[in-house]
From TrEMBL:
Keywords: Transferase. The keyword DNA damage does not apply. Coiled coil: none annotated. Belongs to the plant acyltransferase family. Pfam families: Transferase (PF02458). This is Omega-hydroxypalmitate O-feruloyl transferase. Transmembrane segments: none annotated. One of its GO terms (molecular function) is acyltransferase activity, transferring groups other than amino-acyl groups.
Length: 442
């Protein structure tokens, strides 16, 4: 248990040496790629950074060359859509991926700092944003690519691989499969097979015809105005303070033991107890709406691959996650035993049956909307990006590039992987209250 403090540098002074556009080896004709109603809600960019120690057999320029070649091979076959663009089909009114071969952007850069000077890699340093270019100067008239790679070398010989993709392309699991396939093609062999053959049939998550909404979906917010934005996805103008709270393996074990008191059939998992703990702290720290009768709703992603009948392939490439929810009055979150909160979180995930998932997808066919809640738990914990073996080794650490949002709390592994780090950004007074509650309930 503890708070991670930022003792690292704030500006890496990254210098870009070369920027190129990686194009498919040859053009392929194909129909636009259908995007499910889950995919189309996630039209925003996600950036990750993967840190590697120095490897004398693989200096940064060799790594960059290997990666470029691997990307070309993937674009020629299973991942040709990386070189495409998002397009709104005027005839159908649906967002889709047009595979027009416009390419993937690749940046080679360097910094004079040593990798060790970054300090604790688990702390989401704002300087990490320099390790992946979010957009690029398109004076050449080319379109913004769906995927951008950046290899940044450190003075010590270590490097960072930054990857920016549109979320409509991948969820966490399908992105990890992509990374495994990228790593497999970076080995110096002509015909290395893919690590995992991806399933690209996104119509497996198409809505039924006609749509059948058989459940209420309070986890979704219907948008009546084209310009309306939901707070979960909106950026705030108010100043937010930021802290990282660490839950050690012992803390998680304590929360599990606490949850057992009064639990009957609840599945007591690490994720459920951590989520319940955060929910209680976030709801009760909201001093602006300090009303015990106020209902607090928490959202958290559930992988639906195993919940469908028949099951979705494990290798499904696309977004196969939906937002589960739990809701309760603040007075109940404060007064009820912890086991009751864990029950509610567990019940929210259990609600995701085949029929509920299909109903949710059909809801998206009828309505335009977004997930609706007071707070969204976005978990990068145990995705295992740092387990991927590249020719130059496994990453020392992999993490998202963090943008502070009041309504989004991030979970990600600590270095070593035994515990979990909780990234929270709130107004100063609210964050102080959150911190007091966080430790009080431990």
């Amino acid at each position: 248990m503890g708070t991670l403090h930022d003792s690292s540098i704030q500006d890496l002074n990254v210098k870009v040496h070369h920027s190129s556009l990686i194009l498919p080896i040859k053009e392929q004709e194909r129909e636009p790629i259908f995007l499910s109603n889950i995919d189309k809600v996630l039209d925003f960019t996600v950036q990750t950074v993967h840190f590697f120690p120095a490897n004398t057999d693989f200096p940064p320029e060799v790594v960059a060359a290997r990666l470029k070649n691997a990307i070309r091979k993937l674009m020629q076959g299973p991942y040709d859509f990386l070189a495409g663009k998002l397009n709104l089909n005027q005839a159908t009114g649906r967002l889709e991926i047009v595979c027009n071969g416009c390419g993937v952007r690749f940046i080679e850069a360097s910094t004079k700092f040593m990798l060790e000077e970054l300090g604790d890699l688990a702390y989401p340093n704002p300087a990490y944003r320099e390790l992946i270019m979010h957009n690029w100067d398109n004076n050449e008239g080319q379109e913004q690519p769906l995927c951008i790679f950046q290899v940044t070398s450190f003075e010590c010989g270590g490097l960072a691989l930054g990857i920016s993709t549109n979320h409509a392309l991948f969820d966490g699991l399908s992105f990890k499969i992509f990374l495994k396939n990228l790593a497999s093609q970076a080995f110096d062999h002509c015909d290395t097979p893919l690590a995992i053959k991806p399933c690209h049939n996104r119509r497996l998550l198409a809505a039924r015809s006609p749509p059948q909404v058989t459940f209420p979906h309070p986890e979704m917010h219907k948008l009546d105005l084209i310009a309306e934005q939901h707070p979960v996805f909106a950026s705030e103008d108010e100043h937010l303070d930021f802290k990282i709270f660490n839950l050690s393996p012992n803390d998680i074990t304590y929360l599990k033991q606490k949850a057992k008191s009064g639990c009957e059939t609840t599945k007591i998992t690490s994720f459920n107890v951590v989520t319940a703990h955060i929910w209680r702290c976030k709801a009760l720290s909201n001093s602006v709406q300090n009303n015990r009768e106020r209902v607090s709703k928490i959202l958290y992603a559930v992988d639906i691959r195993s919940r469908l009948n028949p099951r979705l392939p494990h290798s499904y490439c696309g977004n196969a996650v939906l937002s589960a929810y739990a809701a309760a009055k603040c007075m109940d979150l404060e007064d009820e035993p912890f086991s009751k909160l864990v029950n509610m979180v567990s019940d929210g995930a259990a609600r995701m049956t085949d029929e509920y998932v299909r109903s949710s997808i059909d809801w998206g066919e009828i309505h335009r909307g977004f997930p609706d809640g007071e707070v969204l738990i976005s978990s990068w914990w145990r995705l295992g990006f740092d387990e991927v073996m590249y020719p130059w080794g496994k990453p020392t650490y992999s993490c998202p590039v963090v943008y502070h949002r009041k309504h989004i709390i991030l979970l990600f592994s600590d270095v070593g992987g035994g515990g979990v780090n909780v990234s929270v950004a709130l107004p100063a007074k609210e964050l102080k209250e959150f911190e007091q509650l966080f430790y009080k309930y431990l």
